[in-house]
Amino acid sequence: MQTTQIFNCVTCPYPNPDASLRLFCFPYAGGSSLIFRRWLTNLPTTVEVCPIELPGRGIQMRLTPFSRLQPLIETLASALEPYLDKPFAFFGHSLGGLVSFELARQLRREHNLSPVHLFVSATRAPQIPSPKPPIHALPDTEFIEELHRFNGTPDSVLQNTELMQLLIPILRADFAVLETYVYAHQAPLECPITAFGGLQDEEVSLEELEGWRSHTIASYKLQMFNGDHFFIQSEQALFLQTLAEHLHALT
């Protein structure tokens, strides 16, 4: 059983006390808050962008990464509570989408709080299990081969033995969070959900994205972009423009 850790996971590089909305951004497996650094100056000034730093990376480097979802969610709910004093929205990519969804359910259950909008990106609907076998326990060589297939980690990193010795424990833990997750049915969320996907994504299909429709009693929208699982990088300018339009509507 993994014990709950206390950590300050919320980063706000450009504090904006006059913002009318906080956007909490949850990274993909192996990702840190730095993946959102360009977002900070490309989204509306009415929004305070708050990337989440998970244990094992960035300013949380010394903490052990979570390998199960529920203790991670419980810890995040406690860490975010002081920041929920104004309207907030969640954005999560891949693993981050699942984390943000379960965190929204946790906040509803424990604090009767809800995001004003949930944005999920390259994340299959939680009730749909992955059709592929788990990879988090593979030997290092095979594990790295699978990471190469995802196309989210540069070859220069995958081929750097010293760097991979640091990254592999984080990546294994993150994939374990995904691959040991078991969906439990609960009432749909009351906030709108927007799902984003890549037209060439071989990891998450259009049908798996459409499954998010059943998780809200409010509006649901699906928008697709050119690109694979990491279209938020390859199509970043267009993606941020689209996200900014959604956020303008909320503020």
Radius of gyration: 17 Å
Q: Do you know the CATH topology? A: Rossmann fold
What structural class should be given to the helix and strand makeup?
alpha/beta
Tally of DSSP β-strands: 6
Instruction: Flag low-confidence runs.
Output: 1-6
Please give the share of residues in helix. Answer: 25-40%
The main sheet comes to: 6 strands, parallel
Domain Thioesterase: 22-249
Organism: Hassallia byssoidea VB512170
Family: Belongs to the thioesterase family.
Protein name: Thioesterase
Q: Can you describe what's shown?
A:
The chain has 251 residues and is α/β, with parallel strands linked by helices. It has one domain (21-129, 182-250): 3-Layer(aba) Sandwich (Rossmann fold), CATH 3.40.50.1820. It is built from 8 helices and 6 strands. The protein has helices spanning 69-80, 95-111, 140-150, 155-158, 161-179, 206-210, 231-234, 236-250; strands at residues 21-26, 47-51, 88-93, 117-121, 193-198, 220-225. Strand 5, helix 6 and strand 6 (220-225) form a beta-alpha-beta unit. Helix 1 (69-80) crosses helix 2. The longest helix is centred in the last third of the chain and has 19 residues, at 161-179. The N and C termini lie far apart (41 Å). Mean pLDDT is 90; it is low at 1-6.
